[in-house]
């Protein structure tokens, strides 16, 4: 039985549309709108997909967009379809990687006839999906810091943060979160923070250290070594962050329980002394 | 545009065709072009043409990469045939870009009323005082009022066959909606 979400309707303001985020009016997942039209039309999809293939070599730049337009059979001037320039390319990567999570989860669940997730809680799926999304950055990880710089620009930052919020919502929904209380907000907020910090860690770790490169003299060998160790390190980092959240979360709820009990006891003692509270 | 192509992109081959239905406007354009660095070259051409029927001016199908119209489409008798002609003469992947007065998209109806009253009351008066030409400025105010709003014009552009951005804003408002930039791409097939 699908759980209907209790959500406050978003006020639709008639604001000017200059550089607004994708205004579908819904920054959260909704079961009633699962088959929405794709966020990119055919032309955008063709050009951006081709441009994304150029990113490992040319980075998130207008050069990648032009090359992508040419490869897709369009003219150089067609990049005018993307007034936000390289941010449109970053946004395409973020949206497509987010929408690919569902397939990844289904593929993993279908493996061993559902054995990987049988009997496991929501936490296992959250960890799998977060790792899956981080690993999806692997082909362009050496360009990721450039992408972060683009996302941090004032005209783009609200869209980037909205995308991060949608990603964390998507991960929780796919993992099967059914809560409708205030933990809906805290879960998504904590996952957004963990994901960004782990993603940052991943981006930093993969940049090869120049001194070690000089010492080893074999660039390719060092980079392949670097990547495998660091991705294992990143997985351990993610484990530690998720454990932190669990410990802190349980710590806070214990503290709340303790304070609650103490306050009630205090009031009851005062009442027993005759104070009218 | 030629300066941008030459100085920013190092492109010395791009050429521009300037079209207008009024021969006097074209003459004024030629005069200004002579004073610029591109006036003498072969990269700038002036053609007298009706935007609603460019075939009569000899413009072939799929012969242009970029079609721009700034504060002009409001004056066309019927923008829809002009949009279809733009679609015809553009190459697949070509860009149609239009800068035009539009409706204020602010939430307060008061702002819109103020803007309209200013257009109809003050502008013709200033035109009379400064240029001695009240009628032209009254026409300006009327043509702005008559022109469809951003969403309707965007739909007209789509109806002509253009593809407009879906992942980002479909048009760009300037000065709260007083002026809007619409862009469309001619699809490949």
Automatic annotation (TrEMBL), chain A:
Residue ranges annotated for the COQ9 C-terminal domain, each copy included: 158-198, 220-246
Summary of the function given for this chain in its UniProt record: Membrane-associated protein that warps the membrane surface to access and bind aromatic isoprenes with high specificity, including ubiquinone (CoQ) isoprene intermediates and presents them directly to Coq7, therefore facilitating the Coq7-mediated hydroxylase step. Participates in the biosynthesis of coenzyme Q, also named ubiquinone, an essential lipid-soluble electron transporter for aerobic cellular respiration.
Pathway involvement of the protein, from the record: Cofactor biosynthesis; ubiquinone biosynthesis
NCBIfam families linked: diverge_rpsU (TIGR02396)
Main location group: mitochondrion
Protein known as: Ubiquinone biosynthesis protein
UniProt keyword 4Fe-4S present: no
Pfam families assigned: COQ9
UniProtKB/TrEMBL annotation, chain B:
Gene Ontology biological process terms in this record: methylation
SUPFAM superfamilies the record matches: S-adenosyl-L-methionine-dependent methyltransferases
CDD domains per record: AdoMet_MTases
Pfam family, one: Ubie_methyltran
Gene3D superfamilies: Vaccinia Virus protein VP39
Entry keywords, A to Z: Methyltransferase, S-adenosyl-L-methionine, Transferase
GO MF term list: 2-methoxy-6-polyprenyl-1,4-benzoquinol methyltransferase activity
InterPro entries linked: SAM-dependent_MTases_sf, UbiE/COQ5_MeTrFase, UbiE/COQ5_MeTrFase_CS
Domain of life: Eukaryota
PANTHER family tied to this protein: 2-METHOXY-6-POLYPRENYL-1,4-BENZOQUINOL METHYLASE, MITOCHONDRIAL (PTHR43591:SF24), METHYLTRANSFERASE (PTHR43591)
Protein name (Swiss-Prot/TrEMBL): Uncharacterized protein
């Amino acid at each position: 039985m699908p759980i209907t979400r209790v959500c406050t309707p978003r006020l639709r303001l008639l604001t000017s549309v200059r550089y607004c985020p994708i205004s579908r009016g819904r920054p959260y997942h909704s079961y009633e709108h699962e088959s929405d039209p794709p966020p990119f039309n055919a032309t955008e999809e063709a050009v951006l997909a081709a441009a994304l293939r150029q990113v490992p070599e040319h980075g998130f730049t207008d050069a990648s967009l032009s090359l992508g337009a040419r490869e897709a059979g369009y003219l150089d001037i067609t990049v005018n379809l993307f007034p936000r320039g390289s941010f449109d390319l970053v946004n395409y990567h973020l949206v497509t990687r987010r929408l690919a999570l569902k397939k990844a989860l289904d593929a993993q669940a279908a493996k061993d006839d559902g054995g990987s997730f049988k009997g496991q809680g929501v936490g296992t799926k959250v960890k799998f999906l977060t790792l899956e999304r981080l690993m999806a950055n692997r082909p362009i990880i050496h360009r990721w810091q450039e992408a972060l710089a683009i996302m941090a620009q004032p005209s783009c930052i609200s869209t980037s943060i909205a995308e991060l919020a949608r990603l964390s919502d998507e991960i929780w929904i796919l993992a099967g979160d059914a809560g409708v209380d205030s933990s809906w907000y805290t879960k998504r907020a904590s996952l957004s923070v963990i994901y960004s910090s782990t993603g940052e860690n991943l981006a930093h770790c993969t940049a090869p250290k120049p001194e070690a490169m000089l010492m080893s003299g074999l660039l390719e060998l060092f980079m392949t070594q670097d990547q495998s160790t660091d991705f294992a390190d990143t997985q351990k980092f993610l484990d530690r962050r998720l454990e932190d959240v669990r410990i802190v979360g349980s710590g806070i709820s214990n503290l709340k329980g303790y304070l609650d009990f103490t306050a009630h006891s205090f009031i009851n003692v005062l009442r027993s002394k005759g104070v009218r509270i | 545009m030629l300066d941008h192509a030459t100085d920013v992109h190092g492109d010395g081959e791009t050429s521009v065709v300037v079209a207008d239905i009024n021969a006097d406007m074209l003459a004024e354009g030629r005069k200004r072009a002579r004073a610029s660095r591109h006036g003498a070259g072969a990269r700038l051409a002036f053609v007298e043409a009706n935007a609603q029927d460019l075939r009569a001016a000899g413009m072939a199908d799929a012969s242009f990469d970029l079609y721009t119209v700034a504060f002009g489409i409001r004056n066309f008798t019927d923008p829809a045939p002009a949009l279809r002609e733009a679609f015809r003469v553009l190459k697949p992947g070509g860009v149609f870009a239009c800068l035009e007065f539009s409706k204020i998209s602010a939430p307060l109806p008061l702002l819109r009323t103020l803007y309209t009253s200013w257009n109809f009351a003050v502008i013709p008066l200033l035109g009379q005082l400064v240029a001695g030409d009240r009628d032209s400025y009254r026409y300006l105010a009327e043509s702005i009022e008559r022109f469809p709003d951003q969403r309707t014009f965007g739909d007209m552009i789509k109806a002509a066959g253009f593809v407009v951005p879906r992942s980002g804003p479909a048009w760009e408002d300037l000065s709260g909606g007083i002026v809007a930039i619409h862009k469309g791409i001619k699809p490949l097939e």
